[in-house]
Amino acid sequence: MSQGVSQPDYTPVLELREAVPIFDEEGLSPLKYTLAVEPGDCVFIESRDDLQTAQFTNLCAGILPIGSGKVRCMGLEWQALDERRAHALRGRIGRISEDSGWIDLYGMHLNILWPRLHHSRSSYAKLVEEAVALALRFGLPGLPTQLPERLSALDRKRAEYVRAFMGRPSLLLLENPLSLAAPKELYNAFLSELTAARERGCAVVWIGAERSAWSGYAQPNMQKFRLGDNGLIEVRGV
C-alpha cells in the first residue's frame, strides 16, 4: 500500500473471493478467481487475450455474472445490488477498455462527460472545468468537441485518460492503458495522474499484454498476476 493513503471505511476496495464466472465457451475459464485490492494498491495482471482481459474487468465491475463465490466493490456485493445501486457504484469506477466505447454520433466532450453526468450531482459547468483541467494535463489543448473519428488515435487515447480519471474514482480498471510507443510526455503524465489517484486512496487494476509498459512503475511489493486459460495465477519475483 502506498504511503500516506487515507483509509476509508471499507477494505479492500475490490475483492474477488473464489468467484467462478458462468461459462459461455469463450473468454474466462470457469475457475475460481481470488483477488484483493486495497486502497492505494496497484495490481498488475499480464494478459495476452483481449477477450479474457475484457471479461475479467467486467467481472470486477459486476457485469459478468458468476455462478458461485463473491465479487465485492467498496464492501458491497455486486449480486446483492439492484440495478440502480449497481449503476451508482459503477459511477465510482474509472475504466479504460480495448474498445473505448466511444459513441460516434456525439462529440468527444459528451463522450467524456456522459458517465459523470449520469452518476454525479455536480453541475455541467463544474464537470467541464474538471475535464478541461485533465485534458490540459494529458496534452490536449482543451476539452475536444469533435466527433471521435475526427481525432487522431493519440488524442483519443488522451481523451480516454480524461474520462477514466474524471470524478476522482475509487477504483480504476485499466485494460492496456499504456504503450512504450506513447510519447514520453504522455507516458509521464499518465503515471503522475495514476500516482496522485493512488495517494487519494484509489485502487488500481492494470491489465496489459506488455509487461514492459509497467516495468518502470512497478515496485517489488506490488501484486502481480498472469491471466490465462488456467485462471488468475500470482507471479512472484517479476
Number of domains: 2
How many H/I helices? 7
CATH superfamily of the largest domain: P-loop containing nucleotide triphosphate hydrolases
Largest sheet: 6 strands, mixed
Gyration radius from CA atoms, angstroms: 17 Å
The rough form would be described as globular
Query: What's the CATH architecture name of the largest domain?
Result: 3-Layer(aba) Sandwich
Low-confidence stretches: 1-8
Query: Which sequence of SSEs, written as H and E, runs from N to C?
Result: EEEHEEHEHHHEHEHEE
Strands of the widest sheet, in order across it, are 6-7-8-3-9-10
Task: Please give the share of residues in helix.
Answer: 25-40%
- Under CATH at level 1, the class of the largest domain stands as Alpha Beta
Structural class: alpha/beta
The share of residues in extended strands comes to 15-25%
According to DSSP, the number of beta strands is 10
Please report the distance between the alpha carbons of the first and last residues.
18 Å
CATH topology name of the largest domain? Rossmann fold
Mean pLDDT, to the nearest integer, reads 91
Describe the structure.
This protein has helices at 50-60, 83-90, 108-119, 124-137, 153-165, 184-199, 212-215, and strands at 14-21, 33-37, 42-46, 66-73, 76-77, 93-96, 171-175, 203-208, 224-228, 231-234. The chain has 238 residues and is of the alpha/beta class. Strand 4 (66-73) and strand 5 (76-77) form a beta hairpin. The protein is globular.
